Amino acid sequence: MIINIRNIVQVAVILLFVSSTLFAQGWDYTKFEGTQISISQGVSKDNTEGKWNDGKLKNISKNLFKTESFDSTSVIDSVIETFYDGNKVKHTYTYDSNNNWILYLIENWDGSQWVNDRRYIYTYDSNGNNTFELIEIWYENEWLNRSRYSYVYDSKSNITTYLFEYWSENQWEMDWRYTYVYDSDGNLTSELFGSWDWGSDQWNVMRITFNYDSNGNMIYQLFENLYENQWINYWQNTFTYDSSGNRTFELSEYWDDNQWVNNDRSTYTYDSNGNRISYLQESTDGSQLVNNLRNTYSYDSYGNMTLRLREDWVDSQWLIISKYTYTYDYNGDKTSYLNERWSGTQWKPMVRITYAYDSNDNITSSYIEVWDDVQLVNEMRYTYTYDSNGDMISCLSEEWDGSQWILRDNFMSFYDSFGRYYEFLTSEISVYYSPITDVTETEMNVSEYSLSQNYPNPFNPSTKIEYRIQKTEFVSLKVYDVLGREVSTLVNKEQKPGNYEIKFDASNLSSGLYFYKIATNGFMQTKKMLLLR
Q: Rounded to whole angstroms, how far apart are CA atoms 500 and 199?
């Protein structure tokens, strides 16, 4: 089993730039409550541009952070965090027969024993969708209610209602809720968010409406607020796409004095492989849209980005600001990242990150250096170890104090073999596993299920995927890119027992590594495939 390398790698990059912001906001990822996320974040901001990065909205199912899963014979039993000051926290997970969490327990080490801190209790419907989450805290030797989340789904497992309540004065009080509506293709068409105002005993409501073209690309978003029982315009976004489904244009406008006013406009261009090669952003100066910034990109023959150059519009001309250079190994894994700033006469390195991997393609270290006005010097490093199954068993975060490496609390994250996302703010994590047969209520006979390696592989532009299912049940077979974004749905229906073969046509996709995942009520597996043009 191979850990999701790129997601782990990205954490080290992100840490330098966002951890200070998160600390300032008081975030604590080891103790966050529930999954407080809007479904519209399925079109989350692009890290490169700060713009929406996907033209399609998809439903959020039982695991909002889930992107992919891998063939595995074990699940995570517990994770122990060790902080730089020596304090420890233990996270223990209990599963049902489908390997869904049913209990998540957090304990603190008091120097002699583990002491309860809080726990999360989950329930699911017959389709495996998370329907309920209860959070309790340990106080004076008993469990007390703190908050709870309730979820409702339609027949296609699209989430339709999402309610958050907190416990106050011996009763549940509503805090906020989301309501979702979908079209027949599963595209989100309406999102209604309400927060409860206890002063007026009513919901403060915002509505987002989505429109799509015939290819399922989102072409319009409208944001409205409810005021005195009337919907008031707030914001709108308009999008256009090329024939391959790549977004080429975006216009954002806000409502002011009974009319729409331009806020910013973005234009994108792509090469013949669908790789973005330019991005132009224009912003309002108060009266019209003017140039603001632009990025240009270069790629290797496998579709990996090797260079991003940023320029800003200053005094009616484009000025070079920075560039980002990336290198990769033969597996397509990123081996280095270099951020440089243009001083006006030369490039000055700002941050360099170097990555190393083992023979199984698992990341073993990431080493971060920063510029001290003279040279690149040590800043941080992360070290990862794995067991014989390729499961990560430890991660260590250290910083350079000028003479030696010392422990330092920082953000660490990884995916388990079923695609669940874990994130901790600590110096060291130790991960412990249990065989699936030891923790499940009934043993799955996976020999009756199978997902074969695609053939041919590598391929261009199409390949065949074979699979076998044991019984009549709902089957999902989807393709994801290396960032976990869904790029194609191959199967999404109930099927009878038997062997199946399906063709995957990647004519509209760029070269690179992709994952295909099969999921039924009793079986999940993911494999890699490589598209080479």
A: 58
Q: HEC string of 70-106?
A: CCCCEEEEEEEEECCCCCEEEEEEEECCCCCEEEEEE
Q: What band does 471 get if pLDDT is binned at 50, 70 and 90? A: confident
Cα–Cα distance measured from residue 50 to residue 58, given in angstroms and rounded to the nearest whole number: 20
Neighbours of 274 (CB within 10 A): 18
Query: Across the chain, what does the average pLDDT equal?
Result: 82
Q: Where are the domains of the chain?
A: 447-531
Tokens of 408: 């330092």
Q: What is the pLDDT of residue 23?
A: 30
User: CA 127, 129, 132, 138 torsion: positive or negative?
Assistant: positive
The set of residues, in sequence order, having a beta carbon less than 8 Å from that of 139 and lying 6+ positions away, is: none
Closest CA to 7 of 362, 530, 526: 362
**Two structure tokens written together for 513:** 């590594």
> Please, are residues 54 and 485 in contact by the beta-carbon 8 Å criterion?
yes
Specify the pLDDT at position 34: 32
Structural contact between residues 346 and 319, judged by C-beta atoms closer than 8 angstroms: no
- Rounded Cα gap, residues 35 and 201, in angstroms: 25
Look at residue 13 and give its three-state secondary structure. helix
Nearest to 130 by CA among 143, 138, 121: 121
For domain 447-531, give the CATH number. Answer: 2.60.40.2550
d(CA 100, CA 110): 30
> Any idea which residue has 């080290």 for tokens?
12
pTM confidence score:
0.71
